[in-house]
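During the reporting period the student researcher (J.K.) took over the structure-prediction task from the postdoctoral fellow and processed the backlog of single-chain submissions. One of the processed entries is reproduced below for the supervisory committee.
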Amino acid sequence: MTVACIIIAHAPRVASVRDVILPSVLQGGFDEVLWIGDGQAGAGYEFLPLPRLTGTTLDALAKRDAGTLATTADFVFYLADDHAWTSSPDALRALPFAEHDIIVPGRWCEGGSQPIVLNMGMNGDDPNFPYCAGHGGFFRRSLIQARPWLTMPHHPNWDLYASRIQLQMGARLIQDQSVSIQDLEPEREPWK
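J.K. obtained the following C-alpha cells:
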C-alpha cells in the first residue's frame, strides 16, 4: 500500500510550509510528497504551482483534485497548510488501509501545559458526526476518482458534505488517533 501526502498551500503560509510543515511530512514516511498551490520547488518532494482561482473553497477543492492527478499512490493524505504531521513512519505504515476508504487522524494544538485535542468530525458529541474535517485525512484514490472533489458541493462546509456523499457511496470511514496532525495556529482558538 502506497501513500502520498499532498500539502495544500496558499501564499500567506508559504514560510510555515517550507520551515515546519514540509520537514514534518518528509520525515513521516510517505511514498510521495507533493506541495501544491503557492510555494517553491525543492529537494525531496514535488512542487506543483496552482495559483489562486477564486479565493473561495473552490480553490481548496481544485488543489485536491490536481494533487490527486499529480500523484499515483493508493491512498492520498491531504494536509492543510496550517497543520504539521506529527507521527512516525511506523505509525503511518500500521494504519488499517486495507479495511477502510477514509482514515481520520487525530488533531491537536498546543495548550500551554498540555495539548488540546481538536475535533476532526469524529467526536460523538458533534451533531454532524461522523465526517472527515478538511484539515487532514487519508482517502483511497479510487474513492476520489469515483467522485472528484470539484464535483462536491461548493460550500464553506464542503468537508462535511463531501463526507456525507462518500459515505452514501459506501466508503468505510474510521478514526485512528495513532497518527495525528498539529494545528499550528492555536491563537486562532481552533477548539471553538
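The committee noted the following: Residues 3-188 form a domain with the Spore Coat Polysaccharide Biosynthesis Protein SpsA; Chain A fold (CATH 3.90.550.10).
J.K. will present the remaining backlog at the next meeting.
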